[in-house]
Write a structure and sequence with these properties.
single chain; 2 helices; 39% helix
């Protein structure tokens, strides 16, 4: 897992901000929140690992099973 990415309650939280050109600048202190589905399309810009996406997906499944 990257130092800029964490997974909480099925959301992928990235330490970064979106720039004017649409790219993501990491390490700015801002917080961006992605669902696992959104994270797949933003994976390259935000440097989100497949393991983080899988972990968030499993957390969402566990939440909805309650």
């Amino acid at each position: 897992m990257s130092g800029n990415v964490r997974v909480e309650r099925g959301w992928i939280l990235v330490d970064g901000a979106r720039q004017d050109d649409g790219t993501i600048r990491l390490g700015t202190g801002g917080e961006m929140r992605f669902s696992p589905f959104e994270a797949i399309s933003q994976r390259a810009d935000a440097r989100i690992a497949w393991g983080d996406i899988l972990k968030a997906s499993v957390q969402r499944l566990a939440f909805w099973r309650r």
